[in-house]
Design a protein that fits this description.
The chain has 411 residues and is α/β, with parallel strands linked by helices. It contains 14 helices and 15 strands. The protein has two domains: 242 residues, Peroxisomal Thiolase, Chain A, domain 1; 144 residues, 3-Layer(aba) Sandwich (Peroxisomal Thiolase, Chain A, domain 1), CATH 3.40.47. The strands form three sheets. Strands 1, 2, 5, 6, 7, 8, 9, 10, 11, 14 and 15 form an eleven-stranded mixed β-sheet that branches. A hairpin with a 3-residue loop joins strand 14 and strand 15.
Length: 411
């Protein structure tokens, strides 16, 4: 069985906007969603900037009881799912046993974990919340979405660091393609902007320490010095093509390729020669039946770290071949959103679908001094028009996890 898989709904909660259309409009305008940290007092932190979701009210998407027993990560997931599922119109059209949830998160309930550890230390074990465990565990965002919509098929988390969202989407594609489900709500969510989270990333010198929001997340720029931590969620409703057409669902793109690999090299650093990441990209291209000469957009992982951006450039060259790689139009939207960790790949898959729909490429902002080692076309600073046959989204995570998903306009 090799069934076609299409996108019938999308939802986004991001530092540059809540809701896909708002997010997309701001992204094309080059809006910077990075600013001073407000989730905690960053006075003693080496990093004072983050990509926070502002004006988010969970009570717009869930009742008070649900919101109060759900970590911020899960609140984001439920909010984005509300938009995606509503757009798809899938509820009531599918056998609940044939509907599933595959959701990625790199960390899970980080805010809940930190708050309850403080309670334990300051007030003793009896003050730890009875909801601590269910709010903290990484599978709960998937479980919460399944509970909300009554989807009784698989409810599976993907936990592969910054590749979590892309791995969730790719595995969901395989499940529908091979007949294990007809509809899957998939994507990623993350809420890592906590005092201990930022301190941990700072201790490994992964975060940018700039105090200027417009000189912090600078993918492929030779001035880059680390990523900017961010939060948010991206959700896609995937559906078997024939049933989507039959019920008149909106079809927003077709998932045609998925690749995943492991560098098997280092706990945090990417393999410098790019071969591990290239394997995942090459697998996605092969599955998508890519042919030289096709017009391709690539939403790069593009974290603004020295090692990642150089290795990803090499990976793209290896996967496409040097000549074709120079024709690929690339951008890193992390320059605007910051790095949403486990949510990043899902939000960036939405970017790919929107790029194909509107025939316009979002920019890589803050790219003023391009690194000679990063010598491809990264769409610096301004959006530009472009019609594409294929879009790919790259995601690479700690542990050497690599994932790439490929999307085509549905014909």
């Amino acid at each position: 069985m090799n069934r076609r898989v299409v996108i019938t709904g999308m939802g986004a909660v991001t530092p540059v906007g809540i809701g896909v259309e708002t997010f997309w409009k701001n992204l094309l305008a080059g809006k910077c969603g990075i600013g001073p940290i407000t989730r905690f007092d960053p006075t003693n932190s080496r990093s004072s900037l983050a990509g926070e979701v502002s004006d988010f009210d969970p009570l717009q998407y869930q009742d008070f009881k649900t919101a109060s027993h759900t970590d911020r990560c899960g609140q984001f997931a439920l909010a984005a799912a509300e938009e995606a599922v509503s757009q798809s119109g899938v509820v009531g059209t599918v056998d609940p046993e044939r509907a599933a949830v595959y959701l990625g998160t790199g960390i899970g309930g980080f805010e809940t974990t930190e708050a309850n550890c403080r309670k334990l230390v300051e007030k003793g074990p009896r003050r730890v919340s009875p909801y601590f465990i269910p709010m903290m565990i990484a599978n709960m965002p998937a479980g919460s979405i399944a509970i909300k919509y009554g989807f009784q098929g698989q409810a599976i988390p993907s936990v592969t660091a910054c590749a979590s969202g892309s791995n969730a989407i790719g595995e969901a594609v395989r499940a529908i393609r091979h007949g294990y489900a007809d509809v899957i709500v998939t994507g990623g969510a993350e809420a890592p902007i906590t005092e201990v989270g930022v301190a941990g990333f700072n201790s490994m010198k992964a975060l940018c320490t700039s105090e200027d929001p417009n000189a912090a997340s600078m993918p492929f720029d030779k001035r880059r010095c680390g990523f900017v931590i961010a939060e948010g969620a991206g959700i896609l409703v995937l559906e078997e093509y024939e049933r989507a057409v039959k019920r008149g669902a909106p079809i927003l793109g077709e998932l045609v390729g998925y690749g995943t690999s492991c560098d098997a090299y280092h706990m945090t650093a990417p393999k410098p020669d790019g071969t591990g990441a290239a394997l995942a990209v090459r697998q996605a291209l092969q599955e998508a039946n890519w042919r030289p000469g096709e017009r391709v957009y690539c939403n790069a992982h593009g974290t603004s770290t020295s090692l990642n951006d150089a290795a990803e450039t090499k990976a793209i060259k290896i996967a496409f071949g040097e000549e074709e790689a120079r024709k690929v139009v690339i951008s890193s939207t992390k320059s605007e959103t910051g790095h949403m960790l486990g949510a990043a790949g899902a939000v960036e898959a939405i970017v790919c679908a929107m790029t194909l729909r509107d025939k316009i490429v979002p920019p890589t902002i803050n790219l003023l001094e391009q690194d000679p080692e990063c010598d491809l076309d990264y769409t610096p600073n301004k959006a530009r028009e472009g019609e594409f046959d294929l879009a790919i989204s790259n995601s690479f995570g700690f542990g050497g996890h690599n994932a790439c998903v490929a999307i085509r306009p549905c014909k």
